[in-house]
Structures are given as C-alpha cells and as structure tokens.
Amino acid sequence: MQGKNMLVVSAHAADFVWRAGGTIAAYIRGGADVHVIVLSFGVRGESNDLWKQEGQSAENVERIRTEEASEAARILGLENVEYWDFEDYPMNITRERMDRLTVRIREIRPDIVITHDRRDAFNPDHEKVSQLVSQSCVMANSAGVMLNGLQATRQMSIFGFEPHQTEISDFKPGTIIDITETFEVKRQAMECFKAQKHLIEYYSMRARMRGNHAARISGNKEYRYAECFANFFPTVGRKFV
User: Fold this and answer.
1) Is the pLDDT of residue 2 over 90?
2) Interval 125-161: pLDDT, tens
3) Residue 236 and residue 241: Cα distance in Å, rounded?
4) In this model, does residue 189 exceed pLDDT 80?
5) Burial classification of residue 205, based on how many CB atoms lie within 10 Å of its CB (0-12 exposed, 13-18 middle, 19 or more buried)
6) What is the DSSP letter of 144?
7) Could you tell me which residues come within 8 angstroms of residue 88 by beta carbon, excluding any fewer than 6 positions away?
8) How many CA atoms does the CB half-sphere of 223 hold within 13 Å?
9) CA separation for the pair 116, 128 (Å, rounded)
10) Euclidean distance between the first and final Cα of the chain, in Å?
11) Which DSSP letter does residue 143 get?
12) pLDDT of 241
C-alpha cells in the first residue's frame, strides 16, 4: 500500500463509509495517499430520518450531513476529502461535470479508483456515478483529451462498491479486502451518520459475512471482517495469485 494513490468517488455523503470505510482506513494506515470526492450530501434522497423532524429545511439537512461526513472522514484518517455539492435524486451528469472529474483524476493520478458498481436496483444516482467515473477515467487516459494542460494518466484499476441490495442488483464479487484490523474504526465512522442509523448494523453484519467468505476462500482464519468489491477489469499478471 505504501506509495499508492487511491481515489474514491462517492455519490452521497455516507456511501464511502458504508461500502469502503474499512478499506480506506487500511490503505491510509498502510501509507497510501487516499482522496475522496463526495458528489452530493444526499439531502433529498438519503436523509429520510432528518426530514421527519418538524420544521426541517434543506439547508439544515445539508449542514448536518456535512458535519457527519467530515467527522467520519476524520475518524478514518482521511485528510483529502472534497464535497462537490451536486443535487441528488436525481443527480444530473453533464459534460462540464465529467470534465471536472477528468481534471481531478489527472491531478490525483490514482493507481486505484473505487466507486459505485454499474448496477444498483434502487438507487439510480449510484448507477449514474458509476458511469460518470468510468467515462472520466477513459477520458483521463486519452492523450487527445486536452484539459488544463494536464498529461494523460495511465490505466488505473477500478473497483465497484458492493450495493445495498446485492443479489437484486446482480452484484458479482470480484475482490474481497480484509478489514479485520480496521473494522472498529469503520464502526465508529458509521456511528456518525444519525440520518441513516438503520444502516449501521446492516453494514456491520455485511462485514462479518464477507469476513467469513474471506476466511473460507483464503484459508486464513484470522480474517473476521471484510469488504467486497466488483472488478471492472480482469486481473492481469504472469501467474495466478
């Protein structure tokens, strides 16, 4: 992990924590440079509990979600987090926004990109962001796409978050990352999100289940908690690993 550059693109304020918080913390501890871009705060579609409060406003929901996400990022050890404040539900993907992300990819020059998988049965924002990120990576790699005088990037590895409705979204596990040493940090980060308290236990159970899969597949019984990702591209090398 030492010297690696990782970019995580999250559609909403909490997605990067629910789906990759343990992996992010592990890479930071391992010496990687991790950047997170949060495209929206999820004010319209990801904050139902907050909207149950009498007299609630969009401005107040955004304030709370910003504070939650910022505190969760601090707990994970993140120093590089950007909030782009797009409107959600639905999220509008424009050429201007694609160019903006392409520029950031060229500036960060990630070895690893993590974002939403291609399908999410109940969240079209996630599917749009998956497409935005994959297309922006292609443009960042293309020398003929000239933006701000930045050089084209090399092909990066791209991985997709495990969606909430895994089977319904036709998710195909590709890579399982052991987060046993960072699970408690992830749990603390998840506790920040009072607007989605119902997901804390769900993603704790999901981490235990994937930890069981990691131990069974690898034969390493020390694996207890894990996160799972889809592979956008096949693994390449001169030997099986």
Assistant:
1) no
2) 999 999 999 999 999 999 999 999 999 999 999 999 9
3) 10
4) yes
5) exposed
6) T
7) 11, 12, 40, 41, 42, 43, 44, 45, 46, 125
8) 19
9) 9
10) 17
11) T
12) 65
Close Cβ partners of 205 (under 8 Å, ≥ 6 residues apart) = none
| 170 close to 127: Cβ distance less than 8 angstroms | no
Token pair belonging to 131: 């497409």
Q: What is the pLDDT of residue 124?
A: 94
pLDDT at 76: 98
Tokens of 232: 């956008």
Q: What is the CATH number assigned to the segment(s) 5-231?
A: 3.40.50.10320
How confident is the model over 81-105, as pLDDT tens digits? Answer: 999 999 999 999 999 999 999 999 9
Distance between CA atoms of 13 and 72, rounded to whole angstroms? Answer: 10
Alpha helices in the chain (DSSP H): 15-29, 48-51, 58-76, 95-108, 124-141, 183-190, 198-218
Mean pLDDT of 8-21: 97
Domain ranges of the chain: 5-231
Size of the chain, expressed as the number of residues it contains: 241
